[in-house]
Write a structure and sequence with these properties.
The protein is an alpha+beta fold. The chain contains 15 helices and 11 strands. α4 packs across α5, α8 packs across α10 and α8 packs across α15. It is globular. The relative contact order is 0.17. Bound molecules: protoporphyrin IX containing FE. Protoporphyrin IX containing FE binds next to α2, α4, α8 and α13.
Length: about 400
Amino acid sequence: MQHHVNAFAQVEPALRLPDLKQALYDDPIFLPTTVVGLHGDEHKEKRRVVQSLFTREFFRQYQNRVFPKALAETLAPAVAAGGGDMSKFAYRVLVNLVADAAGLDRDGSEAQTDHIQMIIGKLGKAPTIGQMLSGSRDAAVAEIAEALELFKTDYYLHSAARRRELIARKRADPSVELPRDMLTCMLQAYDGSVDDDQLVRDTAFFILAGAFTQANALQNTIWEILTWCRSHPEARAELLTNPELLQKFIWESLRLHPASPVARRKALCPMHLPDQTEVAEGDIVDINIATANRDPSVFGPDAEAFNPDRELPRRVQLYGMSFGAGMHACVGRILAAGMPVAIGATDGGETEYGTLYLVIHALLTEGIDFHPTQAPTIDESTTRKHFHSFPFIFRGKEIA
Ligand code: HEM
């Protein structure tokens, strides 16, 4: 039997139930052994390693050193061309950024960006494989196996070899600096006890989780911002100079367009949901984040509308439940969406603005706008708002 959790107040307690196991990622070769597919102690252990990457030092190094280089690489050709297609640009920029955080050594070329994107695109079929019919399912499994092999030979092996050598050198000389990335964390925790194929899956999943979610968020947020600016032209200048405002626009867009609209779980034993619904062992529970994020009892009568200034009940975030909760809560939330600017700013250090903020600020600075004659086209076949094409232009630098 299948149950549905739709009310905002029920989502977090449902995601925290320890007897509900991840059920969205049940392909036979890729996701079940990565952090998002594991359960119980095995999950706790791998999550501890994944989380160990996200220190304050990591955010600073990423924001100040890794990020500007990777962004410039992808932005420069689009600026030179006077614009592009956001449905492609978003993936290019975010695959590069997350590949760096994952620990892939890249040459920075456009051809290589396309190649990584092609591989991750094929791996992106894994989450929906459970719902496929048998014929196409076999083909999809074969495609995922092929993509993992390509990822291993073309990116993983040389990136891991360089890190292994550095880790060995650091044992003899503590002054050796190690890269701050996921692959280094994984090798330090597991090298020798886990085979390379598992580390390949873990690293590839990290890119999938970080790049595709953010690419979806970037497209939707740019669409919301440009649409808003049509009716509020004065907002453009303010978005460039008021970080708190830009952050609100991003979070409100994340609420309306969650990258993972549904979290699916399976009951490990007979149990009750937080609203006392009875659940039998093996039942499926779909926790509908997209519906909960538009719950009018929490977000008000205009919950369906984009309104970055909305009043929120205490302890409710503007991005709603878009980053999940409980044992599988998103570890990349701060990297993607930052810390509240006001809090970060009073912390005596630098603010973690988040990747989306930094990319969107750069695009606004270049004067991004809708293409004057080519409207975006939207894929209406999915509940997730997905752009077939999203032509944009740069109107020239805006003064911040
Ligand atoms: C807009 C951006 C993002 C959104 C909306 C998002 C959303 C989510 C959600 C809803 C989950 C929980 C899935 C579930 O409960 O089944 C999740 C898990 C996860 N996310 Fe994100 N994510 C984003 C960005 C990122 C980034 C940038 C990274 C890393 C670079 C990342 C890494 C992960 C990982 C590793 C997990 C699995 C955690 C676990 O299973 O313990 N995410 N994300």
